[in-house]
Amino acid sequence: MKFAKAQEVASILSTVASKFKNTDDKEKTIITFHEKTNSLVISSEQNNINNIKNLISKLDIRRAQVLVEAIIVELSETAANKLGVETIFSGASSEEIPIGITRLNPSGPDLLSIIATSSDQDNATLASSGIASILSSKGLLAGIGDITEGQDNFALLVNAIREDQNSNILSTPSLLAMDNETAKSLVGQEIPITTGESLGSNNSNPFRTTSRQEVGIGLEVTPQINEGDSVLLEVKIEVSGVAGVVSSGVDLVTNKRTIETTALVGNDEIIVLGGLIDEDLQENINKVPIIGSIPIFGKLFQSKSESKVKRNLMVFIKPKIMIDSNDSQNITSEKYNYIKAEQIISGKNNILDELD
Asked: Which of 35, 41, 52, 123 has its CA 20 to 30 A from that of 27?
């Protein structure tokens, strides 16, 4: 055989040969194969041999290939707004000093440390803590207060911040697949996922079992070349990644978006498979009971944070049919010359010299 696998062709020929009529009932058509040399071994009448040879010539042909190029674009937008108010009040009574503190945003500036710094300049620890609290803060900080010894003291600090983040993650996987054959690729990593654990008796024999899960960008295609230079593509694209950990800090949370479809695409044409839009809005309000619910005035006794995440995943596919070795060589040379030009520009032109 020149191109086809002898084992697969032998199975087809045996089915067809079972319908042959022999002049001598004792002589039956026998078709087998030799795997090491990829050869067919046939025993049959001469007229049957000619029919079998004609059928082999139809099956033993060079099959076309399809180069499938994909562009995966993820457009994401993240916006976060935070507004918090912290207050401190201390009375002037020398016998019993009332103190009131609102502490709603643990990640914001430490108002208590800042006040302690201003009232005790000789304490280096408090001074360092107060300065570090201010330097690690983000956004707008504004405060008012009156700190006078022997009198009622108060302080108020407002922290406002808005964060915006845009990303454009572009991936361009490509696969070379034989006609009617499935090809797969994955660019990513394997992460451990806990499947079970046991502490044993009195923690004497603790253990945990894990499994490996693949995350990243996966592409799976099965092309079928049709009449008229069109390609029927069975496509499965998966984009996954690690989102973070759960509250226990042990198990991982993963994001996963998948497109699985069948599309008819012309040769060397680009088609969009669709977009996956995901929008997540979360709002968190911390406030002092009762007082924080008072209209307008209650804003001074609450901290509010809002986060919005919007993602749009779009996938573009372009198939390129390669009929013979000339098509394969032309596409390969184009890709190879592009990579070599990039290496020359970056001063690393000696990497590909061994292939020339």
From this structure: 35
